[in-house]
Input
Amino acid sequence: MHKLDAVDDLILDEALTVDPAESGDASEEDAFGSGEDTDEAGSGEDLADAPVLVLEAPAVAAELAGQGRTVLHRSDQLEDEADVPAELLESWDDPRLAEVRLVLLRLPANLNALDELAELVATHCHPEVRLVAGARVKHMTRGMNDVLAAHFGEVRASLGVRKCRVLHAAGALPDARGTQPTWPREAALEEFGLTVLSHGATFAGNKLDLGTRLLLGQVADLRPAPGADRAVDLGSGSGILATVLARNGWQVTGVDSSRAAVAATAATAAANRATVEVLRTDALTDWSAADLDLVVCNPPFHVGSAKDSSPAFRMIASAAHALRPGGELWCVYNAHLPYLPALRRDVGPSEVVARDRSYIVTRSTRES
Output
């Protein structure tokens, strides 16, 4: 169950000051200090049925839906979309977005993620859309204002409350509408002959992070054996590992809980003419037992801004379940993290096959 916290409370409070359904025929001056009167938008009663778009804030979506508002919600992480009593926005081509005049957002720490979201809101929502985006002050930077200003004519900050703050944006820039999207973005990984695409929230973007580089150096030449060719890139990110394995003849599925990751994995595979199935799911918890011959994994050790290794331990345990006897899990992780005992306990015999100053690559073999 998603519970409101101080950031959510402030977003909701600040939304009341600019919500067209609450303010009726209030002018832009009331909300932002300048601008034209917006009588043409209709009365507050008319706008009460207009959908509110809630991004990356499941507790806010649940709260507004419980108040009887029409709510569309969307988050990057699968767990943030679960058990929310509001309608999930599956596609940015949804025609209902043209009616959205209010968007509520929990600010992502990643400026690229914010840039893509701001671009999508400015492009697809009503021209008079207002964006209310909040976070804890310690996680906010001036760069967030600059990113929003690239898509909206008016950007201002609220007062700080309980160590939280909100950014308001309005006046979607005319150039945003009808233009080609700038995401996903492409880069060449020449040393491996790859074209890599990423969305704003994709881990490491379209670059090769140091941990994945170390792992890729160990698995780039792996080839399947006859009848033993089922592989998963667990936490697939931009799909670099999945695409290389597919190019080597593996039957590969890229698995991630992130919307940005599965979209990027599919795009990278397509750009390199590789066949990769993509699946958005929580690790391999629902995968058939003893089905896979190979799993490669660069697990996260953060949940949002907080350090948290629980997703990694869940990924290791689920990989053990999905591997056939004799199947292998190749994993890379920060050298200070205590994953090796878990690999030996949950999967089987495990050895360190590569390491540098920051990362360790291990190979674990599933016991019967």
Observations:
- The longest strand covers residues 323-334.
- Residues 25-45 have pLDDT under 50 and may be disordered.
- The chain has two domains: 6-176, 185-365.
- Residues 185-365 form a domain with the Rossmann fold fold (CATH 3.40.50.150).
